[in-house]
Amino acid sequence: MSSVLLKNAQVVVTMDGDDWVEADILIEDGAISNVGVGLTHSDVERVDVTGCIVTPGLINTHHHLYQTLTRAVPAAQNALLFGWLQTLYPIWSRFTPDDIRLSAQIGLSELALSGCTTSSDHLYLFPNGSRLDDTIEAAALVGLRFHPTRGAMSIGESDGGLPPDGLVENEEDILNDTIRLIDTFHDGSDGAMVRVGVAPCSPFSVSRELMRDAAILARDKSVRLHTHLAENDEDVRYSLETFGCRPGQYAEDLGWVGDDVWHAHCVKLDTQEIDLFSKSGTSVAHCPCSNCRLGSGIAPVRGMKDAGVNVSLGVDGSASNDQASVVSEARQAMLLQRVSKGADAMSAREALELATVGGARSLGRTDIGRIAPGMRADLAIWDASGLDSAGSWDPAALVLAGPSKVKHLFVEGRQVVTDGRITSFDLGAALRAVPDAVARLAG
Description:
Structural class: alpha/beta
Shape: globular
Number of strands: 17
Number of domains: 2
Number of helices: 14
Distance between the termini: 47 Å
Strand content: 15-25%
Mean pLDDT: 96
CATH superfamily of the largest domain: Metal-dependent hydrolases
Helix content: 25-40%
CATH class of the largest domain: Alpha Beta
Radius of gyration: 21 Å
């Protein structure tokens, strides 16, 4: 792998202590080997980043990439969570493996342009022969670091669950396929491009037995656990009526707390549940735009952070967010805490922390999320010389005033975005395939 020298950055936001001003970054063998002023190196590709801010690549810890082909569906635009799901389930049941791959290519490209170098994905339905393998193939093509999670639904409408019976799976089959995926794709080493997680969809779509068995399997295989929890009032009410307890107790009873677990949403956690997550080291993927779109509420992020809970960011699926921008998610997270708790409730730097070091912690990674020698070379380069940043006194405060798309993006030292364009694969061909796919899904 060739060496790359990024020259003359206006600011390098390290998230690892002090920022560097007018600095350079040397990349060798997929890792950052040096950060400093006036760096030189022989036999190196030089990239001039004058007038740019360099941040760690942003990290997205909750997504449903398949939903990229079902944005802004009219019948689901104004529904709460459960009604939204029930409207979309029949459409999602028409997906093919080609649709899963295409939606992942589009969704991951959108993330890359927003500065994201690492994304998780929660795929929990597998219609018409679709497999998690399809998204892993797409991520390799786009070039992002990928944390796919093997989701599942096993309790259909006839058994009191929310999803239609045609979209649920046999629980033994779910566990066997999860084992296959981990054995085939999971890489626990530093610099890994793929790590597989275990992720039954939610308390209202799988059995208690599957949740318990999935946790046991994940720990036996030394992989991480992920699911939805306490997303809105309907979610909490379902837990109380069905299980006789709040979501936090449900999670604790079934082994779903610990430093190897990260839960999505957690909008309705109460103080006891926040304390449980803090003491157990359980992380939260905060999805502010989706929570706003579905009217779920404002997650108590300030309370979580103050209690010591690790919080990261997720864009959630594009059927509940309509776009996938991690940097926009960071801004929204900051604004929601300010409107809820006051203008000093979250700083711009803390919002960026959610998108970098917080994301790395949620995914159990110590090799990404910061800029320092020895870290993997996952870097987002933002052009601060344009209209978005004009007049800004603090270019590093990207979520206050700055570009929403990157100029360049490096993942594992390889350039995925060049001058604002995806260069790792033929995005144009993928976009040309979208209208036919959407027309067929619309039926």
